Amino acid sequence: MGEKKSLRKELTKGFIAENPVLRLVLGTCPTLAVSTSVTNAIGMGISATIVLICSNMVISALRKVIPSKVRIPAYVVVIASFVTIVQMLVEAFVPAIDKALGVFLPLIVVNCIILGRAEAFASKNPVIVCAVDGLGMGIGFTMTLSVMAAIRELLGAGTLFSNLQGLLAVLGDNTLGGFNGFNIAEKLGMTPMTIFILAPGGFFVFGILMACANKIAERKGKPKAELKGCSSCPMAASCSLLISGESKESKEEVGVR
Q1: Considering the entire predicted model, what is its pTM?
Q2: DSSP 8-state assignment for residue 239
Q3: pLDDT digit string (tens) for 92-115?
Q4: How far is Cα 54 from Cα 65, in angstroms, rounded to an integer?
Q5: Are 178 and 161 spatial neighbours (Cβ–Cβ below 8 Å)?
Q6: Could you count the other beta carbons within 10 Å of the beta carbon of residue 92?
Q7: Cα–Cα distance between 143 and 149 in angstroms, integer?
C-alpha cells in the first residue's frame, strides 16, 4: 500500500507541485518556441515524455556502473540515443510535426528537464520509480505546453487544434472524419491578436500561468518558484563555470585575510 502511494506521489508531483516548467522553471526555451499551436505542443510533449521515461530507466539501471567523473557525458550519450530514435520515428510517421518542431526536436538532448531529472533523480533511485517520475514530469510538461499553446493559438491566430491531421497521421488518413481544428476567428468574426504568437505574448502567458501555479502550490504549503541563479540548477555540482566561480571567491577571501 505504501509503495503504491509513493508511486502515485512520484507520478502526480510533476503536475503542479514540481511542474518542470512552472515550478522548477526548466525547459523554458522550447516551451516558449513551440507553444504557438496545440498540435505542436502535444507533439513536443509526447516526444519529450518518451525520452524522459526511457533515459530515466537506463540511467537508473546504470547508476552504479557509470563513474562519477564522467556521469554527465554518459547521461548525454544515453539521452541523445533516445532522442535520435524518437526523431527518426516522428520523421517517418508524423512528418508534418517533425517539420513544425524543426530544430527543437533534436534539441531535446540538451533540454534542462531531461538532464535535470537524470542528475537529480534517476542517478539516485530505482528503475520503476524513475520510470514513473519520467512519466509524471512528461505529463506535467505536456500539460503546460498544451495550456500555453491553447491560449496563444486561440488569441493569436483565432484557431484551435490547427493541423491536427498532421499529428494524427500515424493513425491513418481521414482520422476523426478529417477534422483539422477549429477556426474560431472566422466563426465569431474576431480579429486575432498576433502578438500572442510572438515572443512578448509567450512571455506574458508564461508569467500568468507561473503565477497561477505558484498560487495553487502556495495553498498546498509549497514554496514559491523563484529564480535563484545557477546555484538552484540540478547540474550545479558539476558545472565548471560555477565551480571556477566558487574557487575565485575562495581565493579572494584568502587574499583578504
Answers
A1: 0.84
A2: -
A3: 999 999 999 999 999 999 898 999
A4: 17
A5: no
A6: 10
A7: 10
